[in-house]
Amino acid sequence: MEIEVFNETEEDLTKDVEELKEFLYHVAEDEKLDNIIYDVIIVNNDKIQKINKEYRGKDVPTDVISFALEDDKSFNREDIRMLGDIYISIEKVRSQALEYGHSFKRELYFLAIHGFLHLLGYDHIKKEDEEKMFKKQEEVLSRYGIER
Asked: Which end of the chain is less enclosed by CB atoms within 10 A, N or C?
């Protein structure tokens, strides 16, 4: 298993990055996903807005964007699942934590799990899929005591 978390901002997020990486490893182990590779990249609003515009046609910053590689069969190997990349806006983490009245950590972990579930094939386009995905997010966060 290989999970990397990269900080591409100018902020010192060393402790947050290490703790998030450890959390994501525990989640993968609990989910019995020992053969996965994926990256989490923490960026600023300008960077995520450029990504959002280029790949989704939306010229606004967003909180999280996932790029699933498993959909592309050329990345698949029998022994390893190369899941893809998750981009998270650190500015959105801070503003949404304030907006929703919970901690920076809770919002960061929520967005990381949200992106991770997208890499695993979860989606929230249909109401029933949204309910399933959001229930799974809350289960994972609750399991680790990361409450609202």
From this structure: C
